[in-house]
Amino acid sequence: MIAALDRFFKHEAAGGIMLMLAAVAALIVANSPLASGYNFLLETQGAITMNGKGIEKPMVLWINDGLMAVFFFLIGLELKREFLEGKLKNPSDVILPGAAAIGGMALPALIFAYFNWGNPETLSGWAIPAATDIAFALGILALVGARAPTSLKVFLLTLAILDDIGAIIIIALFYTANLKVHFLALALIPLAGLLLLNLTRNHRTAPFVLLGIAMWVLVLKSGVHATLAGVVTAFFIPLYDRWGKSPLHSIEHGLTPYVYFFIVPVFAFANAGVVLSGLSLADLADPLPLGIILGLVIGKQIGVFGVTWLVVKSGIARLPHGANWLHVYGVACLAGIGFTMSLFIGGLSFDKPELMNQVRLGVLGGSLVSGLLGYALLMLASPAQETVAAE
Predict the structure, then answer these.
(1) Do residues 291 and 115 make contact, with C-beta atoms less than 8 angstroms apart?
(2) Are 281 and 365 in contact (CB under 8 A)?
């Protein structure tokens, strides 16, 4: 039993499976007699105060603003590593997935905007279908096995990483409300401390964590979304310390299982509870869920595949080695699995329960269709060893 669990948690698809199970659990609980307890738990207020001043939030926001800051911290570590010594180090390797990522973000946003243009309230969610969930997409690709060449995984991973960069920029630029400049100025103090630790190539983790928490509090108070403090803190973790050891690798390796097997599933459980009571198939045609579904399913397919086709046919780049066009189209479909980031941006866009229920409906529906379609296409594609990369 223990050996079987160990094999499961080491499998590439494990993170995506845990995420799916958490989403299914949320869906079941939200539509069962346990719904009142589920809502009570998410709405329970938690506070950290001193002399009556501090931070007080419902549990769902502690998860979305607090735990997800750790998720973004890990994303920041992965981005820094990839830029310095990984898939983003060589600019020529970024051209194809980079162009595909831009197309895969722009077209879904335009489709959503088309269906919601007449409603300023729902139009604010334009970025919801622009995101890709790394854990889910790579998890399904791992289930395909040998039918997907290794280069295809690298292509999808690079695309998803660049997609995350785009999502981080969008959150910073478009989801900041009531900016309080004095708190943002105070955040420069722990930022300077992080810079000093980085320049001295400090190997201790605790000072980085403490300064990161201080910056998180100040950024939260400033009105800028606090999860961005996680990304900034990650960028100051040294790749190598003065003794040649890697604090970044060490922290990333130690943190990854906690993020993908605890934090992300907890986020999914707290945010994926679609209340189905009173809903019908006609509700899928409402502008908000329809814009999300078509953005994820159609927008991602056309955006990722179409831009990839243009870049390859123009001779700027080549298809991933060993992959054919059906492989690329399958990956374009997998890019339509928004889930974690889409739900996160949805939570930033809306605070009305009825609108968030529509967001959940659209994200779950669009992600499910994209995942199933991508898996089916990749299973139909020729096995990797029998394919020839197209010129």
Answers:
(1) yes
(2) no
Going from the C-alpha of 206 to that of each of 11, 76, 247, 253, 376, the distances in angstroms are: 30, 18, 11, 16, 46
CA-based R_g, the chain, Å:
21
Specify the residue for token string 């499976």: 17
pLDDT above 80: residue 387: no
Terminal CA-CA length for the chain: 48
Residue 3, burial from CB neighbour count under 10 angstroms (0-12, 13-18, 19+):
exposed
What is the rounded CA–CA span in Å between residue 246 and residue 174? 35
pLDDT of residue 17: 81
Q: Coil, strand or helix: which one is 273?
A: coil
CATH number at 90-237+274-386:
1.20.1530.10
Q: Which of 107, 136, 112 is nearest to 125 (CA)?
A: 112
Per-domain residue ranges of the chain: 90-237+274-386
Which band of pLDDT confidence, cut at 50, 70 and 90, is reported for residue 129? very high
> In degrees rounded to 5, what are phi and psi of residue 309?
-60, -45
Beta strands in 6-159 (DSSP E): 45-50, 53-58
| The pLDDT value given to residue 281 | 74
Dihedrals phi, psi of 57, to nearest 5 degrees: -145, 155
Task: Check residue 133 and give left, alpha or beta (phi > 0: left; psi -120 to 50: alpha).
Answer: beta
Beta strand ranges found along the chain (DSSP E): 45-50, 53-58
- Calculate the alpha carbon distances from 32 to 29, 269, 290 in Å: 5, 14, 26
Q: Tokens at residue 37, please?
A: 């307890």
pTM to 2 decimals? Answer: 0.81
Nearest to 167, CA basis, from 119, 211, 127: 127
User: CA-based angle 204:227:296, to the nearest 5?
Assistant: 130
Identify the residue with better confidence: 374 or 65.
Answer: 374
pLDDT digits (tens, 9 = 90+) for 63-100: 888 888 898 898 889 888 888 887 777 777 788 999 99
Report the largest interatomic distance among the alpha carbons of the chain, rounded to a whole angstrom. Answer: 69
Structure letter (DSSP) for residue 320: P
* Alpha-carbon gap, residue 79 to 184, rounded angstroms: 24
Q: Per-residue pLDDT tens for 8-44? A: 666 666 777 888 888 889 989 989 998 899 889 988 9
